């Protein structure tokens, strides 16, 4: 197991209950010394903690795949590996390299042979673009960038109307 | 609509008719579909879930095959009502306990239910009584076709219908049959059946229990693979196996009668006696005895009781149903008493008629 703060092997394992929340730390000797001196406190944030868990889970996959993130829904490949659920239809193309071997293992095939819809929509295209626009809109609202939000809202509305008249 | 009205009826799939219905309770098809322009439900924000639900519901309302379905906002129901719908198999456990905007549209006969914002944006479910998987598939596929005229489903030229979980991708199809296999359980043959089914990639699940621990000797057999075979192939894989299981169950039943009719008669009559006279009974014990009684009716060891009545009792003695029938919330002890009351009343009614 790697240290939560650097790439050294963790040799000290701390269960921290002091902040009122249950938290487990895995540290190397060097970082454990810093932790004791209070130097790590300022660095410790949730994001780093989550990253360390995902890295531990990923094992040998900490390569190119692990860095993948869907530009449409924002799901990271490692999040998918951890939860087993994809974020949006476009993930099937974005994460293709990791997914195809997995599908082969689960289904013994990577080729659909069943029915297909009359109005087949392409997966990465205007439809997926809507997912990205909505996500950007939400972020803009959260950052209180209302001018950008208004522009995005217009774009989404225009797209929706284009869909309805198909 | 008032959910309490449903306590007087049961789903059409429990009416105990259809091919091989002494052993095959029901045939079920489930299709997973997602809109192409939204993230999957678990990734969607609460606002996006509202929009997904609105879009799917509009599609259901406009489509000729589904416009007459009743609609319920599941997120507005209290936990008891959600459990009630789950016990009737109108919604899944995941749908009952999930969060955010979600709903279900269902037929009054309860053989069609469309879940919105479950794990996938849309789950189409069709259930028929007896062994009728192909007809059930045709109906589900027809509903899918008619919805697809209004809704843009996420579809990939190579991978087929795209789903939130890669275990459902391709056809998005889960085909299953629910079997009542008391003789295979009594004669301890059921494990062999499980092992054989696993070898051909079929999953077995107990109906009311968790994992393979079934109560009431009900087992659900379904496909695991959804990608690489056509829907018809997947269904044929199940429909060729089920007659063999039916055959073994019938042989087991005949063996039990042949070995000692008296022992079996005693077993069945004692179970009926307990159900008719208990003043407090757990769900598990009820399942066990109802299963014996159901077997007894099928082997003509009991007169004056009908299979649909027993089928209905399996559902009506579930916790949420008892509380809806009683009209008040009950703790576990109260439920055991209410369950015994209900059974005494129902079984007395029936014996007086004959």
Give an account of the 3D structure:
The complex is a heterodimer of chains A (166) and B (354). Helix content of chain A is 48%, strand content 6%. In chain A, helix 2 packs across helix 3 and helix 6 runs antiparallel to helix 7 (146-164). In chain A, a hairpin with a 6-residue loop joins strand 1 and strand 2 (23-27). Chain A is mainly alpha-helical and 166 residues long. Chain A has helices at 29-36, 46-58, 77-83, 91-94, 96-107, 126-142, 146-164; strands at residues 12-16, 23-27. The radius of gyration of chain A is 21 Å and the shape is flat. By secondary structure, chain B is α+β, with helices and mostly antiparallel strands. Chain B has helices spanning 46-62, 79-87, 93-97, 133-148, 182-186, 190-199, 231-259, 261-277, 283-298, 307-316, 319-326, 332-353, and strands at residues 24-33, 70-73, 103-106, 112-116, 122-129, 155-156, 160-161, 173-180, 202-206, 218-223. In chain B, the strands form 2 sheets. Chain B has an 8-stranded antiparallel β-sheet, covered by helices on one side. A two-stranded antiparallel ribbon of chain B has the order 6-7. In chain B, strand 4 and strand 5 form a beta hairpin. The interface between A and B is large, with 41 and 44 residues.
Average predicted confidence as pLDDT of chain A: 79
How many whole angstroms does the radius of gyration of chain B measure? 21 Å
Radius of gyration of chain A: 21 Å
Largest sheet, strands/sense/barrel of chain B: 8 strands, antiparallel
| Helix content range of chain B | 40-55%
Largest interface, chains and sizes:
A-B, 41 and 44 residues
- SSE sequence of chain A, one letter per element: EEHHHHHHH
Enumerate the spans of chain A where pLDDT stays under 50 for 5 or more consecutive residues.
none
Specify the overall morphology of chain A. Answer: flat
Proportion of residues in extended strands of chain B: 15-25%
Order of helices and strands of chain B, N to C? EHEHHEEEHEEEHHEEHHHHHH
Structural class, judged by helices and strands of chain A?
mainly alpha
Main sheet makeup of chain A: 2 strands, antiparallel
Structural class of chain B: alpha+beta
Measure the end-to-end span of chain B. 36 Å
